[in-house]
Amino acid sequence: MYIEQIKIENFRLLQNCCLDMREKTTLLVGKNNTGKTSFAVLLEKFLERPENFTYTDFPIPIRQKILSIDDEANVEDLTIRLVLRIAYDETDNLEILSKFMLDLDPTRRHTNILFECSIDKRRLLRALPDDTKERKKFIENNLNGKFLNCAVFAFDDFGHTEETPYYLAHRDQLEEKERSEVRELMNFQVIHARRNVASSEDAGGGAKPLSAISTKFFQKRNIATDASEDDETVGPDGDNIEKLRSMLASIDDQLGKQYAQVFGGFLKNSRDFLELGDLKVVSNIQSQRLIETSSQVIYGETDNFLPENHSGLGYLNILYLLLQIELCRDDFVRKNAPLNLLLIEEPEAHTHPQMQYVFAEKIHGLISQIPKLQTLLTTHSSHIVSKSNFEDIRYLSRLSPVEPVTIKNFHTDLSAKYEELGADGKALFQFLKQYLTINSAELFFASKAVFIEGTTERILLPLFIEMHDKENVDETTESGLSSQNISVLEVGANARAFAPFLEFIGVRTLVITDIDTTKSVVSEKTGKTSYPACPVAESSHTSNETLKHFLSAPDPKEKKDFSDWHKRLVDGAASSGEGQIELAYQLAEDGYHARSFEDAFISINLVKVKARKDTLAGLKNLDALEEFSGNDFYSLSDRILGKKSDFAGSVLYSALVEGESWRVPKYIMDGLKWIHKN
C-alpha cells in the first residue's frame, strides 16, 4: 500500500499540478520559486494544521475573484484541493483503508482521499463591509479559519473517463470522513529546511540545539517505554531507560539523607515558626531535565573535548537531521499506521558540497531501513540529484513568472522525448543517464547553460565572460553575465544528447563548438573515401556531430543538398531554428576562417603571442612562430602548440596578473552576448 499520486489545485504557485509518487523515495527538484516549499506547506496544513489556511495561500490568478465574491460566485472554482490516490493489492491489510473504499470490488486497486479548503460564502458575505476598499482589506486580513471550511472526503473514480475530475462532476458521490480516520490511516512527519541549528556566535554563546533535541529524543523513548510497560513488551531501549531511572532513584535517596543534615536547622525553625507539619527537602531528579540542563553533546576525547556549539553548521545540521529521522522512525514504528509519509526539506542545508555528496550516498539507505515508509525529499543540491535514480526525480518547472508550476516525471516524460528521435534516441538517453554527474545535475537548477568542447575553453571562459561584461557595460549595468545563474558543462561533441533534456527543463543554452572541417579524399589504391581534417577553405564536410544535428544537415549521400548546406555552414547562414539553443562556432574574422578555438585565438592575438613566446607555457617550435608569415594559422597552431591546457593557463595568468588584454574570438563574444540577453 502506498500513495501513488498527489494532485494539487489552487494553492499558491501550485494551481493545477500532479505528482507521481515512488513507493520508497521521490525527489522534488527545481529552481528557486517553483513551489517546492509550498508543496511541503500544503501537505502539513491539510494533514496537521487545517486551521492555518489564509488568504495568501490562494493563488494570485483567483484572488480577484475572491475579492469580488458575491451570491453568484461558484466557490468550487476557488477551493484549495489536495487529492491522494492510494494504491493497494491483495497482500495489504485493508482494515483501516476500507473506511475510504466505497466499493469493495476485488478487481480495484486504487482509492482516493480528497482534502478541501473552501470559502464559507454565506458567512463571509454577511461579514463584508460595503465599501470596496474596506472590503478588499477585510478579505486580505480576515480570510482564515473563521471563513474557511476544511473537509475530507473519500471517493472512488473507477472507470471515470470524463474530462471534468470525478470529485467535481459527482459531488453527490463523495463521502465525508473524519480527520481522525485520516490520522489513523496515515502518519505524516516533516523535517523542515529551517532547522534549529546555530553556532555559538549566532546563538548567544549558550545554545545547545543537539542537546535540546537529544532531550526530546529521550522523552519520546521514555514515553514509549511507559507505553510498552503497559503492554508488557519492554524492549532494549526500555531496559536501558529503566536502568537510568534506577540510578537516579538511588541518587535521590542519597541526596535526601544529605539534605536532611544540611537543611536540618533551617527546616526545624521553619516548622516551629509556621506551625507546619513534617517539612522536608527531598531530591527529585527528572531524567529528561538532567539531560537538557546537565548534559551536552561533545566531540573529541572526553578529557580534551570541544562543545557542540564549536562544530560547524554543516556537522550540526547533519547530526540534528539524523536525530530528527530517528525521532520520526520511533513515531512511525510506535503508531504503526498503514501509510507512513516523511517529508525532508533541503537536507543539504548548511553543508558544504563534499559533505552533501557523502550524505547523498547515505540518506537513501538510512530511509529505506524504516518499514512501510515513503519519503519526499526537496533539494537544491546537484550532489544529491547526481546520487539519485532517474526514476525518483520529479522536476518542478515554471517557464515564466506569470505561469503556474508543472511537475514533470523526469524519467517517463523525458524518455518519451528521446524515443521521438528514433533509433538513436535510446542510446542517447542511456548516455544522458550515465552522464548525470554533479556538473550535469546543476542544469536542474540553472537559469542558463553554456556547453563547451574542451579544457582550453573551460579554463578561459571565465576570463571571456569577465571581458564581455566590461566591454558591454551599458548593457550589463544591472546584471552582468558573470552574476547570472549559468551552468557551464564540458560535453565535447555530445551536446546533441542533451537537446531533449534542455527542452524538457526549459534552460536556454549556448553551445560553443568547433567547425571541425574535413574534406572528402578517395584512396587511389582502395577506392575508399576518408575525411581528413583540413583548413576551412579546402573543406567539403565537417566531423562535428553537434553542428550536423542542431543545424539539420542533410544526408551526405545527397551531394548537392549537403554541399549547399556546408556552404551555408561556412558562411554562418545555417539556422538551427531553435530559439532555446544557440550554436557558436568559428566564422571568418580579420581575413581568416579558423577551424578550432586555438587557431582562432592565435590568429587574432599573433603579435601578443610572439611577444610573450618565452613566458607562455605549452608552446613548442618557437622558431616557427617567429618566422611565421601569411595566414595559415591552422598549420601554425598545429606546429607550435604542445599541451593546450598549459597554454590556456598561461594566457589566463598573463591576463589576470600581468594585465594583458587578449582579444576574444568574435564567435565566442557573439555567443556570450546572445546568452546574456536571452
Protein architecture, described:
Helix 7 (209-230) packs across helix 8 (236-262). The two termini are 47 Å apart. Mean pLDDT is 83; it is low at 197-207, 229-236 and 302-312. Strand 19 and strand 20 form a beta hairpin. This protein has 678 residues and is α/β, with parallel strands linked by helices. The chain has a six-stranded antiparallel beta sheet. A six-stranded mixed beta sheet has the order 8-11-12-3-13-14, sandwiched between helices. A four-stranded parallel beta sheet has the order 16-15-17-22. Among the domains are: 2-191; 209-295, no CATH class. The chain has 26 helices and 22 strands. Helix content is 42%, strand content 17%.
The number of distinct helices, counting runs of at least 4 residues, comes to 26
- Please tell me how large the radius of gyration is: 34 Å
> By helix and strand content, what is the structural category?
alpha/beta
The coarse silhouette is: globular
Main sheet: strands, sense, barrel:
6 strands, antiparallel
The percentage of residues in β strands lies in: 15-25%
Average pLDDT rating? 83
Give the terminus-to-terminus CA distance.
47 Å
Number of strands: 22
Q: Low-confidence spans: pLDDT under 50, at least 5 residues?
A: 197-207, 229-236, 302-312
Helicity range: 40-55%
- State the strand order across the main sheet: 2-1-4-5-6-7
